[in-house]
Amino acid sequence: MKSTSSLFLxxxxxxxxxxxxxxxxxxxxxxxxxxxxxxPAQTAHILKExxxxxxxxGQGRNGLFSTALTKFREGMxxxxxxxxxxxxxxxxxxFDRKDLKQTDFMEWRDRNEERLKDDDFKKGLMLQxxxxxxxxxxxxxxxxxxxxxxxxxxQAFVAKAVAAVQESTxxxxxxxxxxxxxKGPPGGGRRGGGGGGGPGGTLNGLLRQPVQGCDFAKAYLLxxxxxxxxxxxxxxDIDGIYTKAILPYxxxxxxxxxxxxxxxxxxxxxxxxxxxxxxxxxxxxxxxEGPRLQWEKNSYLVTNGLNAVNALAEMLKVIQxxxxxxxxxxxxxxxRETVESVSEPGTAPVxxxxxxxx
Length: 358
Prior knowledge:
Elements: H1 2-20, H2 40-75, H3 79-94, H4 102-111, H5 113-116, H6 119-138, H7 148-168, E1 170-171, E2 177-178, H8 201-208, H9 215-219, H10 238-253, H11 258-276, H12 279-303, H13 308-321, H14 328-342
Antiparallel strand pairs: 1-2
């Protein structure tokens, strides 16, 4: 009997879990999702607190910009002031924040004394500060029509930057570039990035560096705050400056002057290239890039409906004058498509003679 009872008990214990299981064809019921429903009072309270947080964030950002603008404008007062501010910023970013000794900074400064006195370096700092100030001011301009004062400042800056590059680079009688200096800004092996090697030396290097990464911006912790999309951050990127700021403003506010602004863009870009290239290099560059820029200009005018007939005539001239250009086949196809898109219904898409000819 004892054996029989034990067997019965064991069988019961084994069967119990099986009987307790959920059948395979019955899926477990998912727990109901809880929904958060705020009362009108709760919603109003949260939104009010968000407004307060937004105000505090704005105040912090504006305060940072205000402090930086004050210091940068002081640095723009003279070349000596610019160098002084540069030293302060460089020391803060590369020595103080890394807990290095004052003597380390003094040794670095002594090693770079000659470079810190270089005229091109000082001019580069002045122009870098000027562009950084404009960049900060541009961050809060949301409407193209309000870009007028900054566009005027940009046009003046481009002229100064081009002249500075031309003055800093000389050519020999044979047309070669005299590399006055190609070591870039002071650094002594301790800084990262921002060097200025290549034609144009120190000044060219400083102005090709995006201002978010310059020593002035890093010292004042501005990198993450300079994030406006329609703005060019490299002071010497002429094409970017015109494409993102100057041309959009003229297209919206002064469309009759867009063509002239395109000419100014092309002239500035070519002037810098001519300054930093040998005569032979520039001749090769101009042969390819000159027609390409003229094509871009007139295509822009056609696309935006600005004196489109004359612009089409100029595009055709570019094709006819440059049949061996690398872009010639693409231009031809684009031109046919453009003519088709602007022709009246039923008009043959093939142009038999230059537009505008009698």
